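Weekend entry, working from home. Most of the wet-lab plans are on hold until the incubator is repaired, so I used the time to fold the two sequences that have been sitting in the queue since the last round of cloning. Logging both here for the record. First:
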Amino acid sequence: MAVVVSGGDVYVAGGWSSDRNVGVAGYWKNGVPVPMTDGTKSAFAESIVVSGSDVYVAGYELDGTGKAVPTYWKNGEALPLAGPTSGSGKLAPSPCREGCVCRRLDLRDR
């Protein structure tokens, strides 16, 4: 789970179980859940970055064989990533020059 505060709003990335006991990736904004997956495939959000009105979340979604596919979501739209056969994407702020918002995407085997 990851927490970030932006513009007075609190965002928490993570997930919860659907009625069918499938992991749903999402985040909470000021305590209100915002799902990013529909609960048909298990998924989990691991990190979050907010830049202006854009919300970037990274984590993974299980494919049909049960392997974790690194995935990031921009404003709720899933963008699967090429990477290890099994792994997790993690989005984290990175230091950069003044006046620019930079991000780093780490892939790691699970």
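Second, folded right after the first finished:
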Amino acid sequence: MSKFDKYMSVTEAAKKLGINRQAVYEAIKRGNIGCIKVGNMTLVKTVSVEKYKVNEKCKQAGFKSKDARQ
């Protein structure tokens, strides 16, 4: 298992979340999704994407939850 197995591309994260790439970058900028930079490539933490997805569903349902940062 590579250490990069815990990461996905911004495009993959956008597809998984049902949002566009720009929205993923905005969530990263706000600190809601964790990432690393490898050269000029941004890799998104898989666990952050999952937590962000749960948090967004909670917000839609009217619940408050901790943010997805990690």
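Plan for Monday: verify the second prediction. The mean pLDDT is 87.
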